[in-house]
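ok so for the tutorial part 2 we go from a plain amino acid sequence to predicted structure tokens. step 1 is just haveing the sequence, like this:
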Amino acid sequence: MKCLDCGQEMAAYEVQTNTAKAVYDVCEACGGLWLDKGQLDKVAFQVDGDIEYCSTEDAEAPAAAPDKLCPRCTGEHLQRVKFLGDDKIVLQHCPNCLGFWLDGGQIGQIDDELAKIMPVKSKGFSEFLANTHLPHFNYRKRDSAETDFTVPVLPLPEATPEGTTLHKCPACGLFLDAWKIHGIGFETCPGCAGLWLHEKQLKALKDQTDDGDLRWMDDEIAAIEKTSAMISDKRCPECADCRLLSTHFGNSGITIDRCDHCRGVWLERGEFEGMAGYLHEELDHESSADLRKEVVKDVKAVFTDKSRSKLAEIRDAKSAISALINTSIFEHPALAEFLLNANKAERVIGGN
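step 2 — the prediction. this is what the tokens look like for a chain of 352 residues:
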């Protein structure tokens, strides 16, 4: 593994104590540190609980900072994340393999922060990092290239492979792989990581996003086949004689390709996540008046829409009602403050 900061070959350490073991890669030139999933918990000061929680909110990179690629996952960009939500400690995290990149000195910042916010049980392997030759540690050092491995990039988190299909990628011509998540089937290209799915599958995947918060937001997906489009140079994986049509998804600026014949949709890598992010932004701008109209429409659909099951329509209505409640609270600060105070009081009483 090459250092993500200075390009030097890193050293792979396997450190063993009487009770635990940690494995990590360190750049002995600049101090950069790569930790695979679960290793940050072992290397940092030992505290109760999992410290690998991180937030991407407001952790954007400075304009001059180049993107780093994960050393384990081909083509996967690392995300800047705030350690335990702390604004001062911004790490880089792979959303696929869940590994962390720490710049030189950041493990010390993490330890200092842990010592402030919770009782430290022991110094764990941090002491080894600071004092490499302590006698009560057994360790093995190797060239990092000897221990390198790759992690398959999942097209969507928690997806499971189902085999290979006879459909070819409209972008690079490779045979598409079949995947399934939450019982929903879809296809993806092993080369460019594009997604091929039908309109119903796209809606079903959207419905699963963020615990169903977006279930009721169907207008943009329903409008895909009605939006003006241009003929693209890509061919439909299922309809060999049909070219895909390029169109915009809502007002998001995301260009997707669709087939007018089989109603399949082709999404380039990252476009599904971009669509979900756009819908969340749209949700944030919905007023309570708009949401009340949506609730009425979805409740009526429970009894009138014969194209979908009553359970699906009820779930959509429930999602819209939840959004209405949340929006109404934010539109009325006094109500929001009352509920927050009630929640605090409930926790105090419960603690007693």
